[in-house]
User: Fold these one by one.
Assistant:
Number 1:
Amino acid sequence: MNFDEAGVIAALARIFGTSQRGVEIGIGDDAAVVKTSARSAITTDIAVEGTHFNTQWSSAFDIGRKITAANLADIYAMGGSPKYLVAAVTLTGQESMEWIEDLAEGMAHEASSCGVYIVGGDLAKGPCKVISVAAIGQIDTVITRSGAQVGDSIYISSLPGWSAAGLAIIDKDLESDIAHYAISEFCAPTVDYSAAVQFANGKATSLCDVSDALVIQAEQIAAASKVQLSIEKDLLSKHPEFATLSEIADSQGIDVWQWILAGGEDHVFLATGKDLTGFRIGSVQSGTGVIGVEMKKAPDIWRHFN
Amino acid sequence: MNFDEAGVIAALARIFGTSQRGVEIGIGDDAAVVKTSARSAITTDIAVEGTHFNTQWSSAFDIGRKITAANLADIYAMGGSPKYLVAAVTLTGQESMEWIEDLAEGMAHEASSCGVYIVGGDLAKGPCKVISVAAIGQIDTVITRSGAQVGDSIYISSLPGWSAAGLAIIDKDLESDIAHYAISEFCAPTVDYSAAVQFANGKATSLCDVSDALVIQAEQIAAASKVQLSIEKDLLSKHPEFATLSEIADSQGIDVWQWILAGGEDHVFLATGKDLTGFRIGSVQSGTGVIGVEMKKAPDIWRHFN
């Protein structure tokens, strides 16, 4: 064991320090006690070493940011505001104290960017590193996937595909700024949480977080709303970042649409509605499923069952 | 892969079916949406294959019950009532559909015994099975570990040590009813949640869940309350189950006190207060630490950092 377990708990209590507004009891008892509103949104996401992250590629700080971002994005994607997190972590015992502190710092950094506190957790020994986070948030008006209306437009908060691009080139030793940007988006995406708030404020009829793939989340909205989503590649290809992403894809002999449509984990927000602030990519019409984005290869993912 | 991932999600949605009071949005969107009160208790616990459970010994149903019980007990141990759970699970892909359904049934069974619903989750592929659960509950009067008063008595809800006994004899092929009981308590303890409610209703001054070991949780109460806990082995040895537990310990050449004081995972509730309904094991006095229960061997655990 490379660290002292009591030392880890003390470090986590310091890093997650919860003498904060709304937190009555933070780390140190059987459960945390927090102020909540009449209606809460709750979610959980798990990240596994080798599946979702790799310590060769990602710093502990980025790993902590990424799993935290996935949870925060899920709450925003319902139209809510995340408030508190709990984290359950398995470690092998071979991690350094510094690595563990960096992981916690990354989680706290991402959480605090949304005014969210980590109020408790659990630590266990296991054969590999697993980080599971659960988030709870306040929610007034709920925006599900089932409200898309015929005649709505479809919007994204930013162009998906950067995380998939980063994964594709992470071991390629590319030296450009754009390559570094893609890799950093894979290691820990920059999530525009405020875009979800804007979608909600603009009375989006449906909203979700693209955690798996744009086509998958679009299909979920279509199915839940009993409508057809017509996504236009022409519109997507006018996104200001499209040319840059295409350039990396071309240099790797990869079809950029695979990254945009089937890549996940950017936590781009996908919304339907009228005159929303966001990038318009298509329209909602009567029918079923998603059209305009036929894929050569289906995305291969394990789905969030929230 | 022994199962179809979409099939798993469908099975979980069926087993966890949340068209229940208080659950506005259950499984199927980015996050669940539930009714909450002004103050909530939140906790998380993680169980890892090989560390906390073993599929050779435990059925999937029991594994599901056990991790769920740990979370429910933590909420009760604050004086709260658990309401909702989310579960994040990693699977290797080698599990049968039946095993996964049994796991979910075990979780749902334990949760429903407390009127609690599983409202969402996440599923991922990993090198071993890991089950992480987070619980949220309603809480009015908070009972921490820091309220024990000089002059209080110390109570337990039942005799700890059965889970430790079960672990010690699980591979011994003992055929007695008592041996089977101990093993079943190790695989999934029978938690008397109502005892925690009785402690809370009796105005317990401190309350916690013995997840690690009786001496560890007693030390935590002593430290948080700035008092000394005097636990009397004489009182503990008068517990109606003491003789039976001693008999198994003797038959294995094990000191029964090791199981009672240092065994964990029974989720016995430990409380201080006056005239509580429970089994009295000692008194609170001025001083520090825990006396009366010196151990030959310290418990070796990784601590919950809630």
Note: Chain A touches chain B through 74 residues (CB under 8 Å).
Number 2:
Amino acid sequence: MLDIAIIGAGPAGLSAAINGVIRNKKVIVFGREPKSSYLYKAEKVDNYLGMPNISGPKMIEEFLNHAKKLGVEFHEGRTLEVFPMGNYYTLNVENEFFEAKTVIIATGIPKANYIPGEKEFLGKGVSYCGTCDGPLYRGKTTMVIGEIEEAEEDVNFLQEICDKVYFLPTYKEIKHVSPKVEILKGKPKEILGDNFVSGIRIDDKELKVDGVFLIKETVPVTQLIKGLEMEGKTIKVNRRQETNFPGVFAAGDCTGRPFQVTKAVGEGAVAALETVSYLHKMDIEKK
Amino acid sequence: MLDIAIIGAGPAGLSAAINGVIRNKKVIVFGREPKSSYLYKAEKVDNYLGMPNISGPKMIEEFLNHAKKLGVEFHEGRTLEVFPMGNYYTLNVENEFFEAKTVIIATGIPKANYIPGEKEFLGKGVSYCGTCDGPLYRGKTTMVIGEIEEAEEDVNFLQEICDKVYFLPTYKEIKHVSPKVEILKGKPKEILGDNFVSGIRIDDKELKVDGVFLIKETVPVTQLIKGLEMEGKTIKVNRRQETNFPGVFAAGDCTGRPFQVTKAVGEGAVAALETVSYLHKMDIEKK
């Protein structure tokens, strides 16, 4: 029986893992290769205090090294479902089963509904965060496709630094967008380019753009644990990273914006420390 | 007018600062030398993901280097009070005044050790700054209780204008204090007076004084902004690091446990990003 099962091997999961291991808990991180993470495609991260101007892959390497140094155990595989069993949980990890007293969900931003070209050009002109990668497009032409109102922040930020910004919202009602932004309608059909994005096709029309920002919904993880309480599309947690299931915590992008490494790492640590408190209470109640 | 005034130069403050600067905001960090922080005394920190097995002083060095690389501006000095001015705030930093659209409080672990009488007589003979309020005590008898070496400045200044100055340092080693000052030892038990300070009790001994100057690491946050909502001894914030004052955010140890660098850094970043959203909304409302 594990003390803590951590679902997700990104910054939140790894931070939770090192904090659990330091507190002498039996921990396994269930996750997929870090190459699947958004961070791996980040050209540059500059806002994680103490590690200035670092590339995404280098950052992942440093994070993994830290975890390995502390003896964190990994199990590769996608967790398909978590079953509440009374006072513990059973995880189905691609049809291998694990039992754990507690669970930390750190699954990141789930991906869905790819536009043709999106996967291929991710990190080569396609980005999921305007406020993060925008500075790479200073003086250039960019397009934001926004599934959610928060996209307007990205749009307004890009408008400050880009030569030209198009905005294609796929949600209901625009709230606060700078008048300098050109609003478009239609359906994005394909992202165009050779080695790097050079344009996008909206319905039958082709537009020249240097970058495409896809501001996506976070897909619910309600399939993972049935009955998990959500807040919009992200997992509802309090400041202690507790979900509505006792012993199930969540950290990082799956708990909502801002989608930043630094937030994920902080939350992962808090989730682990709260989990440790929870385990201690469980032990005391047993005695 | 600053976009963001950050009070505190520890991990939370520095993380907020780099995130504000990356988003093109005009930021100043108001704080004292990091040598005063708890982190500086940490022999080893091993749970900040990506920086395994690092000493406290080395960690501070890395953090400061990152901030300096990004051009973060610092102003040394203790912030004595923050005044809400409608749609902006004015900071009194040892009697220099700064205006800022938003404020991030990152003052560290709250030391809520009030001396009996301290709250009651604040502004009536009790002050947190000798160089600011000293002139009111010309020709009188005052006492300085100093938690930090900087208190010596207040002591030496008061000695020039007061008839008599007592000094009770609670830190290790006195550096430069005028020989005319009478140094005391003991524990301050109570500040005495009727409507105004008339004395102080140190252990069992009562001294007649007209003013008591308490030179602390940081001014208690409840004195910093009158009306700030607390939760026990820490500042009440939600998951967006918002306090009950619009445009005032808080991050790090001052918002409660766990008192960990990684939590502080994550929260500092979140506070800065939420502040940026708040500033954008302000800008749009003006237009």
Note: DSSP finds seven helices and 17 strands in chain B.
